[in-house]
Amino acid sequence: MGPGFRRDDSWRVQLSSRLRREYLPPRTISIGAAPQQRHRAIGASPVFLNRLGVVARLTALATAASAAAHAEGCPKSSDEMATDRPDVTNSSIVVPVGSLQNENGVNLTGRDGGRTIDGSNSRWRLGVAPCLEVLIDLPSYVGPLKGLGASGFSDVAPAVKWQVSPVPGKIDLSITAGVALPTGATAIAGRGTQPYIQLPWSWELHDGWGLSGMFTEFFRPAELTGRHISEATFVIEKKLTEKLSVFTEYVGDYPNGAVPTQLINSGGMAHLTPTQQVDLHVAFGLNRNSPTYVVGVGYSFRVDGLFR
Question: pTM of the prediction?
Answer without folding.
Answer: 0.79
